[in-house]
């Protein structure tokens, strides 16, 4: 059997050379064709399988050539299927409290003991913050950002971490975010300057040093500064706390819930009413949420009006 024109064209199109064995060339002669016609019944019998290692003796039994499509299908191996990616198991987040406890233990091993910080007065606390070298943030800071305001203020505002301008001036909430905060406080009759404690705020951050390039603070860094913030709150004894921003909320409430779910209701920090709201820097980028921040301030005013009065024992400004 010879290759048809169609088969030849297909092989040429695929770049395959057609090789004709001598036996096939001999088969094209008229005498051989007649002999093949006589031996056709014997040729139709299926050929016996011969082991590959066994030598073939005598004249080889002719096997009809495959059709071109079959030959190509046999010559080309089946395409490999790409291995299916194994399903990945989503990492399980460690419990927030357990992680915070581990970070606190690491912070205590590196820095001043919590018990020591808990006994400091205002001058001692300020000095310890200024001299703190418990984490790598001390290497890049210009100034520590301790806090500002009346040390007996009824209101306490807790922010996140100092930015570039705060690092240069050593004061929290300066620049555009600080201007917006001052405007918000003035709208409800408050300020960070001189005045009676009832109309003043004390402003502090959860972190006392600026993270390089304003990156998010690490949990261990927050844990290192936590005793300083706790002592500030204990010394001030505020009647209400305004937690501004995600990291301030996480530090004070030990909650990973978004601010949108936590705001609008009264929380407690060591018995002190706490209101969750957005950070002023966030509000500068998301103007529609200013209305929600105003609602939070109104809730704080209402909560303070309903809270018992605090005995006043004199004070000063930081």
Question: What is the element layout, followed by pairings?
Answer:
Blueprint: H1 5-13, H2 22-27, H3 30-38, H4 40-43, H5 68-75, H6 96-110, H7 114-117, H8 122-131, E1 148-149, E2 155-159, H9 164-169, H10 175-187, E3 201-205, H11 219-236, E4 240-244, H12 246-253, H13 259-262, E5 266-269, E6 272-277, H14 280-285, H15 290-306
Parallel strand pairs: 2-3, 2-4, 4-6
Antiparallel strand pairs: 1-3, 5-6
Helix pairs in contact: 6-11
Structure overview:
This protein starts with a helix and ends in a 12-residue tail after the last helix. The chain has helices spanning 5-13, 22-27, 30-38, 40-43, 68-75, 96-110, 114-117, 122-131, 164-169, 175-187, 219-236, 246-253, 259-262, 280-285, 290-306; strands at residues 148-149, 155-159, 201-205, 240-244, 266-269, 272-277. The longest helix is centred in the C-terminal third of the chain and has 18 residues, at 219-236. A six-stranded mixed sheet has the order 1-3-2-4-6-5, with helices on both faces. The protein has a domain at 97-306: Uracil-DNA glycosylase-like domain (Uracil-DNA Glycosylase, subunit E). It has 15 helices and six strands. α6 (96-110) crosses α11. It is of the alpha/beta class. It is elongated and about 115 Å long.
Overview in brief:
With 318 residues, the protein is α/β, with parallel strands linked by helices.
Keywords:
disordered C terminus, 318 residues, alpha/beta, 6-stranded mixed sheet, 6 strands
CATH architecture type of the domain at 97-306:
3-Layer(aba) Sandwich
Note the main sheet: 6 strands, mixed
Low-confidence stretches: 28-47, 49-79, 82-94, 314-318
Class computed from helices, strands and strand pairing: alpha/beta
Mind telling me the CATH class of the domain at 97-306?
A: Alpha Beta
Helical content band: 40-55%
Radius of gyration: 41 Å
Q: Given the structure, what is the number of helices?
A: 15
Shape: elongated
The fourth-level CATH homologous superfamily of the domain at 97-306 is Uracil-DNA glycosylase-like domain
β-strand percent reads: 5-15%
| Mean residue pLDDT | 77
Main sheet: strand order:
1-3-2-4-6-5
């Amino acid at each position: 059997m010879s290759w048809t024109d169609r088969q030849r064209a297909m092989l040429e199109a695929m770049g395959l050379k057609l090789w004709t064995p001598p036996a096939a060339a001999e088969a094209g002669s008229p005498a051989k064709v007649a002999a093949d016609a006589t031996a056709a019944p014997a040729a139709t019998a299926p050929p016996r399988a011969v082991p590959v290692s066994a030598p073939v003796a005598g004249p080889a039994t002719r096997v009809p050539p495959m059709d071109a499509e079959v030959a190509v299908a046999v010559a080309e191996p089946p395409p490999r299927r790409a291995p299916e990616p194994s399903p990945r198991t989503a990492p399980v987040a460690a419990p927030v409290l357990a992680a915070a406890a581990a970070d606190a233990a690491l912070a205590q091993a590196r820095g001043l003991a919590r018990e020591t910080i808990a006994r400091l007065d205002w001058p001692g606390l300020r000095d310890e913050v200024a001299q703190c070298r418990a984490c790598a943030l001390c290497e890049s800071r210009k100034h520590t950002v301790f806090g500002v305001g009346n040390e007996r203020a009824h209101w306490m505002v807790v922010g996140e971490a100092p930015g570039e301008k705060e690092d240069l001036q050593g004061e929290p909430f300066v620049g555009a975010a600080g201007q917006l905060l001052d405007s918000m406080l003035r709208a409800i009759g408050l300020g960070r300057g001189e005045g009676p404690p009832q109309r003043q705020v004390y402003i502090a951050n959860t972190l006392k040093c600026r993270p390089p390039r304003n990156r998010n603070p690490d949990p261990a860094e927050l844990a290192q500064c936590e005793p300083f913030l706790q002592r500030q709150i204990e010394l001030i004894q505020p009647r209400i706390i305004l937690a501004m921003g995600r990291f301030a909320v996480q530090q004070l409430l030990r909650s990973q819930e978004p601010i949108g779910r936590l705001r609008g209701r009264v929380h407690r920090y060591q018995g002190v009413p706490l209101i969750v709201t957005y950070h002023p820097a966030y509000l500068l980028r998301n103007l529609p949420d200013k209305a929600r921040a105003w609602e939070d301030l109104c809730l704080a005013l209402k909560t303070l009006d309903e809270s018992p009065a605090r005995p006043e024992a004199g004070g000063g400004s930081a």
